[in-house]
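Quick start: read one record
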Amino acid sequence: MDASQTPPELTDRKNAIRTAMRARLSALTPAQRSAGSAAACARLVTCEAFARATTVMLYMPMRSEVDVISVALEAFRLGKNVCVPRVETGHKSMHAIETSTFDDESMGADELGVRSPTSGAQIPHETIDLVVVPGVAFDARGFRLGRGGGYYDRYLARLRRHTATIGICFDFQFVDLVPTEPTDIAVQSIVSDRRRIETHPSPSTTPPKEST
């Protein structure tokens, strides 16, 4: 569903969560962000999905997000292929661009101002084994609240059924319930600085599995 078609009441609920969560994210000190990011990333690299993956799609972290650069470095060390998003606002689309370095010389900014490789091959979504997904908020079902552009939902909808998707966040970014629309795509698991949750993208009577 396009943002312009979202019912106003649902938009208000989403924006209220975004406002509250952004305030908490902005209040993080650099030391808190660093420690929380390190703990969340340490959990992510122990996931079976990461171990199995040959090609991993990460994201270029903004100041308020979990810094996943350490995951990229571990992927490089293990000989995995790494790619990151580049958006095209005109087509409301997102593509995966291969990268082998995060040096400033190799990075520019995409149309949303997020760091992105200035060159590199576009990686077909069919060849990606794991996508690590950021979010403003998550719930235990695996649904996420993004910034409102819908880029990740549209991209996730195109993936193969067996492509792994892992959300990553600080633990305080969990909420009881993320307001959803039919076009919202749940991730298969979520890692934070305190726990990992295996979610159920489709309705199930089995509760989410949580581990510390």
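The chain has five helices and 13 strands.
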